[in-house]
């Protein structure tokens, strides 16, 4: 059977089930083979687990249809499963951004199913992977990557979330948000007749232009997109580390926005922690981590952890809990 579960707990999606067949001597039994997928805004990472241990680990382009076309998503999944999905697979457990409804989960499961027709497929919001990778079954997971979101669960089985609305409606504190704010900062300086500062100069160099006015057309161009502008977040981080005040303020605001999301979910669930911060920015930008901790401390939250392994490695725990 193939199932696709989202944050609200989706019903199973019917699918044919075929016999698994015998495994070669010494190989993992089919029931012991699980593939975990972490489908982000910029890449899809897949890990093949046998007996709960990773035996293959590959990355391809994004298979998130909020960021790429359905055709590109399907092509990237085909590439990934060709690398790690051969043979009988018992289960695929996929986490992805933008899984907000049963229909979202079912649509992604439908893209995965042709590659593993005998497998059970579970699709959840990617924040579930993050919490499990932090070794927690209750608490709040905060994604700070290309996008942003907070999701949590308590011991009574209640779930809550904040953010995760996508870049047009939110994604505060994310890589995209920082990249966009760098553009806005540069355009404000231009409108005020000020010379480009160090952040603007770095942005212009990265965009291969010498005129801030050209950033407007570039930002709206189909040749750039969410991934491109999220990658410009590194310029804000570098400028902040070099002492640029506005960049430091932007990262502090990002930390505050992420902390506010986490605090909201904690209140809804009646929890005081833990809060686990993960994804690209969350795991790698110390200045953001410090801001995040400080703003949560003001809210009385002190059990704050930085994820030490990628979210996809939470899949074995989720599969065990599911069983």
Automatic annotation (TrEMBL):
Gene3D superfamilies: 3.30.420.40. InterPro entries: ATPase_BadF, ATPase_NBD, Euk-type_GlcNAc_Kinase. Residues 35-278 form the ATPase BadF/BadG/BcrA/BcrD type domain. Residues 8-30 have a biased composition (Low complexity). Residues 1-30 are annotated as: Disordered. Transmembrane segments: none annotated. Pfam families: BcrAD_BadFG. It comes from the Bacteria. This is ATPase BadF/BadG/BcrA/BcrD type domain-containing protein. The lineage of its organism: Bacteria, Bacillati, Actinomycetota, Actinomycetes, Micrococcales.
């Amino acid at each position: 059977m193939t199932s696709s579960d989202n944050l609200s707990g989706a019903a199973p999606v019917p699918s044919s089930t075929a016999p698994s067949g015998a495994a070669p001597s010494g190989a993992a039994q089919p029931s012991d083979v699980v593939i975990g997928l972490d489908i982000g805004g910029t890449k899809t990472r897949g890990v093949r687990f046998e007996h709960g241990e990773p035996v293959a680990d590959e990355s391809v382009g994004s298979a998130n249809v909020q960021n790429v076309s359905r055709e590109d998503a399907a092509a990237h999944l085909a590439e990934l499963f060709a690398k790690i999905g051969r043979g009988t697979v018992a289960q695929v457990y996929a986490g992805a951004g933008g899984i907000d409804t049963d229909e979202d989960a079912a649509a992604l499961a439908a893209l995965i199913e042709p590659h593993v027709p005998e497998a059970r497929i579970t699709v959840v919001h990617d924040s579930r992977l993050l919490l499990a990778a932090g070794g927690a079954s209750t608490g709040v997971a905060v994604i700070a990557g290309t996008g942003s979101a907070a999701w949590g669960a308590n011991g009574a089985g209640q779930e809550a979330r904040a953010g995760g609305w996508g870049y047009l409606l939110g994604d505060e504190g994310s890589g995209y948000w920082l990249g966009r704010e760098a553009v806005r900062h540069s355009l404000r300086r231009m409108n005020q007749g000020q010379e480009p500062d160090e952040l603007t100069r770095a942005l212009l160099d990265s965009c291969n232009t010498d005129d801030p006015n050209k950033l407007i057309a570039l930002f709206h161009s189909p040749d750039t997109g969410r991934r491109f502008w999220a990658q410009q977040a590194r310029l804000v981080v570098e400028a902040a580390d070099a002492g640029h005040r506005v960049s430091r303020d932007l990262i502090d605001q990002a930390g505050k926005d992420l902390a506010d999301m986490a605090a909201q979910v904690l209140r809804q669930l009646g929890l005081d922690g833990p809060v686990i911060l993960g994804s690209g920015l969350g795991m790698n930008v110390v200045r953001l981590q410090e801001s995040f901790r400080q703003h949560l401390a003001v809210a009385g939250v002190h059990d704050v952890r930085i994820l030490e392994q990628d979210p996809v490695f939470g899949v074995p725990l989720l599969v065990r809990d599911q069983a």
